[in-house]
Amino acid sequence: MARTIQHSDGALIFYDTIQEKPHTDENEIGTWHFDHSKGRSVKGVDILSCVHHSEGVTLPVAFEVIHKPVELTDEATGQLKRRGETIKNELMRRMFRVCENNGLEYRHVLADSWFSSKENMEFIHSDLGKGVHHRAQIQQDS
Length: 142
Hints:
This protein is an alpha+beta fold. Helix content is 25%, strand content 36%. It is built from four helices and seven strands.
């Protein structure tokens, strides 16, 4: 399906979303995640998604369920916490590689600001050969 709508001016859009599961027993998938829209942690399943938008159509092309298998004790509070073995930025770069390996055409990348690390920008520019434009530069070019 992606091949029928892909266009060289398309966009890859990365975002994460939390499906709240407040009454589910905690495990490495259904655990506490910080919800930026609420400004607090919520219990649920966190999913990092990538969609391809082109020619007015948006299709999912990759996703990662966030796993937090490492248990640790917060020294300040004494509470048990969980941590992932892989950070979301690394998962995003893996998803980029999947899209590249599948030959998906795109020109633009959209993501929340917490994905705008120097390492991600260098990966997009150097490894993928895509231009990196910051919001200020885009506004100046318009």
